[in-house]
Amino acid sequence: MLIKSPRGWELPERLATPESVYLNRRQLVKAIAAGPIAAAAVAAPFGPADAAEEVVEAANAQAEADPTLDLYPAPLNGAHADAGRVVTPEADNLTYNNFYEFGSHKQIWRRAGDLPRRPWAVAFDGLVEEEKTVDIDTLIRAMDLEERVYRHRCVEAWSMVVPWTGFPLKDLVAFARPLGSARYVVMQTFDDVDWAPGLGQFWYPWPYTEGVTVEEAGNDLAFVVTGAYGKPMANQFGAPLRLHLPWKYGFKSVKSIVRVSLAEERPTTFWEELVPSEYGFWANVNPDVPHPRWSQAEERVLGTQDRIATQIYNGYGEQVAALYAGMEDESLFM
Ligand SMILES: Nc1nc2c(c(=O)[nH]1)N[C@H]1C(S)=C(S)[C@@H](COP(=O)(O)O)O[C@H]1N2
Ligand SMILES: [Mo]
């Protein structure tokens, strides 16, 4: 059994409280059966308790060394308090990542342990009033952090639920001060091979690049992430700054951002450049539009391994479908 050392920021009250929005009845029953609720929620579905403990301790150490630790836990946004599903146990999420800069396996967390989180700067350029490079701590402290629980659907047909901390993407765009001619927000990951060995694989079109329209960036759901599970996020999640667009396939949610560009032209994104027949610009979740090599009708839930039906726009259609009105000619779902 995982015994966690008490840290104020580490275990928000709601994670430990049975009435919590984080625990539905089913998870609660499991948790009670397995022992102390808080520990079970983190460790039980992951497997060996010592492995779970090791990965969570590594994440905690990174969080404790983070200069923004004092901002956690951030207030929970009531409109995004409950994703309607069980939150993925932290240890499962920490050990099942896509981060090709560190390799294409699912054991990213050990390699990502060396990612230098500081100093870290984010460049704002392109169609902006004035180009600038901003220190990450200045940037984060200029924003109002909040917590949101979001569903995440990977194009590989697995899904998870994560309590992220961050701020709306529209606030990042406002911070960039775009010109009226800007139509796309383009974001890039670091490209330093000394930090991540995958960047030496020349056949990939580094740096990892993603983008959305200015309208999509202005949607309330579009979220820039600084933390997860109530603390500054672990390296493997894309520290110190990543995106999360919960209605799109996970590859749109670019990690470890170093550059934000405003552009008039639609960017060619990383996966689109690599395999244009399989990964497009829009990449909205749709169970009825299969990937060329597999069905998207169902997804495997990380942690429980349950198979559940995938929902159009990952269940966020009410908030985002209007963005795509009149765009039926576009490949909105790949
Ligand atoms: N820079 C970068 N960002 C990335 C990726 C990547 O390989 N490199 N993978 C994407 C994919 S496919 C997914 S599903 C999510 C995974 O996020 P997670 O590891 O936090 O679950 O990150 C996305 N962002
Ligand atoms: Mo993904």
CATH-defined superfamily: Oxidoreductase, molybdopterin-binding domain
Strands, count: 12
Instruction: Give the ligands present.
Output: ligand MTE, molybdenum atom
Report low-confidence residues grouped into runs of 5 or more: 1-45
Which range does the strand content fall in?
15-25%
Tell me the structural class.
Answer: alpha+beta
Q: Determine the number of helices (DSSP H or I, runs of at least 4 residues).
A: 11
SSE arrangement, N to C: HHHHHHEEHEEHEEHEEEEHEEH
Estimate nothing, just give the exact number of structural domains: 1
Largest sheet features: 7 strands, mixed
CATH topology label: Sulfite Oxidase, Chain A, domain 2
Helix content: 10-25%
CATH architecture: Alpha-Beta Complex
User: What is the rounded Rg?
Assistant: 19 Å
Shape: globular
At the first level of CATH, what is the class? Alpha Beta
Distance between the termini: 42 Å
Average per-residue pLDDT, rounded, comes to 88
